[in-house]
User: Which sequence fits this backbone?
């Protein structure tokens, strides 16, 4: 898992929504979301699921590259 790539995807998904709005919706702190978006940390599995549901994407789309996904499949 590439932290920077995941952070970039999360930033793109959030677009112009306020960070606090997303953090509140998925019940995490704003600072945690910021760390995920800047590639400092990768969220725990339960947070990955919440973020994926919020953005209406699959966990694989957000957190795994197509190469990693192909290797597992």
Assistant:
């Amino acid at each position: 898992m590439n932290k920077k790539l995941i952070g970039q995807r999360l930033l793109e998904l959030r677009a112009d929504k306020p960070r606090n709005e997303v953090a509140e919706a998925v019940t995490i702190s704003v600072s945690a979301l910021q760390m995920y978006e800047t590639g400092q940390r990768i969220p725990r599995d339960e947070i990955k699921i919440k973020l994926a549901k919020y953005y209406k994407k699959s966990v694989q789309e957000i957190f795994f590259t197509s190469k990693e996904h192909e290797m597992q499949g």
Summary: The chain has a mean pLDDT of 91.
